[in-house]
Design a protein that fits this description.
Low-confidence stretches: 105-114
CATH architecture: Sandwich
Keywords: Membrane, Transmembrane, Transmembrane helix
Number of domains: 1
CATH superfamily: Cytolysin/lectin
Strand content: 15-25%
Radius of gyration: 21 Å
Number of strands: 15
Length: about 400
């Protein structure tokens, strides 16, 4: 079924026997230590010390990480390079992403053109299972930070594992794929399954991994960890930082229509796919397929990250708002506002499915009416909700779910 070397029965046996070190509910601070320890052990980079050492020290760490990624790219075969280019993790010239661009906020450098303000890079959306999204939707308090950091650690572990291990980590983490195109690919396999069990679902993910190639998968994960997750973790340690996971559990694409920063700046945005030449600020609609063989539906739900923080040397934190265009579920669009004070004061967010003003107006309304939890319902009966992890200033994590 998968290759000349492995049948489904052989895969199922290997999958059941495989032991993986998956982090799903480890305490936030413990996971942070695991993340730093992994980077130091595997890549020889002490990111925490590099960040504390200033721009020159951090730039040296970035150069070391770039050398690691360049080495992985050079090890790819010609066929694997073509696949990596199709996935958007290698440029048309066959070069990996420039990590310095993703760490520009920390190491300095000229801004680059981007969809989001302040030259902020856009990171590809991820696909999660319905069960994983339900868990995130129910998260409150420190669970929000715990789930995000556990996911980071699981990606790191994938870098060092084989195809079966990567499959099992994806399954146990609720991750289906990275990018809209990859999500569709896996779901098209699931659509053809005769039975839908954990083993057959895992076989679909495994088939997707084999079709791409384990070397390319590991290279893609390394690119994600180095260019996306580690920089975000570094930025989380800075004052007045906010990381929002925006989840689209609806049948319509969420297309950003406007964003404003009353205070602070944007450090990361989202896009539908990894293609650097087409960074559309879209969180795709959920992907749903009907498997007539087993009379069931299967959904993959996309999410995007929005990272915000205070401006350098500013004496205030970050405050702003983002809006999404009208959809059939949300006729007035969706608004999300945030405020993360520098030190004194409470974190707050605000969501709306009925606001008719500007993003500037909504940012000001968040300052007046925001809270840790916010919910609103559109005239069509669809809900937008947001939940933030802490009421103290300086850092904030939040899940925002449209459903």
């Amino acid at each position: 079924m998968f290759s000349n070397q492995m049948t489904f029965d052989q895969f199922e046996s290997a999958y059941n026997a495989k032991k993986v070190d998956v982090a799903n509910n480890l305490p936030y601070h413990e996971v942070i230590e695991r993340i730093w320890r992994h980077e130091k052990t595997v890549r020889g980079i002490d990111w925490r010390a590099a960040a504390a050492g200033g721009p020159d020290t951090l730039a040296a760490a970035v150069a070391k990480a770039q050398a690691w990624l360049d080495g992985q790219a050079r090890a790819l075969s010609a066929a694997e390079v073509k696949v990596a280019q199709d996935l958007g993790v290698l440029s048309k010239e066959g070069k990996p992403i420039e990590l310095a661009a993703f760490l520009r906020d920390a190491v300095g450098g000229a801004p680059v053109p981007a969809t989001f303000p302040d030259g902020a890079p856009s990171y590809t959306v991820w696909g999660w299972s319905s069960d994983t999204v339900a868990k995130y939707q129910a998260a409150r308090g420190n669970d929000v930070a715990t789930y995000v950091t556990n996911l980071v650690n699981n990606f790191q572990v994938m870098e060092q594992d084989d195809e079966v291990g990567i499959t099992k980590i994806c399954m146990q983490s609720g991750v289906i794929a990275f990018g809209a195109a990859a999500i569709k690919y896996v779901l098209n396999i699931i659509k053809t399954l005769v039975t839908l069990t954990e083993a057959t679902e895992a076989s679909a993910v495994f088939s997707g991994i084999l079709s791409v190639g384990a070397n390319v998968i590991r290279f893609m994960i390394s690119s994600i960890v180095l260019a996306i997750l580690v920089p975000l973790m570094i930025l989380m340690a800075k004052d007045a930082f906010g990381l929002f996971v925006i989840i689209n559990n609806t049948d319509s694409d969420l297309v950003m229509s406007d964003i404003v920063f009353t205070h602070g700046k944007c450090v990361s945005g989202f896009k539908a796919d990894a293609d650097a030449d087409n960074p559309q600020a879209i969180i795709p609609a959920k992907f749903v397929i009907e498997n007539l063989n087993v009379q069931t539906s299967y959904a993959a739900i996309s999410a995007g990250f929005l990272g915000v923080r205070k401006r350098d040397n500013a004496l205030v934190g970050t405050q702003g708002a983002i809006s999404f265009a009208s959809t059939s579920e949300f006729a007035s669009g969706i608004f999300l506002g945030w405020e993360v004070p520098l030190s004194i004061g409470s974190n707050r967010l605000l969501v709306s499915a009925n606001f008719t003003g500007s993003v500037d107006d909504f940012s000001n309304q968040t300052d007046d009416s925001g809270a840790l939890d916010s919910t609103d319902t559109s005239p069509a009966g669809h809900v937008i909700e947001g939940h933030m992890n802490a009421d103290g200033g300086s850092s904030a994590y939040a899940f925002v779910i449209a459903s």
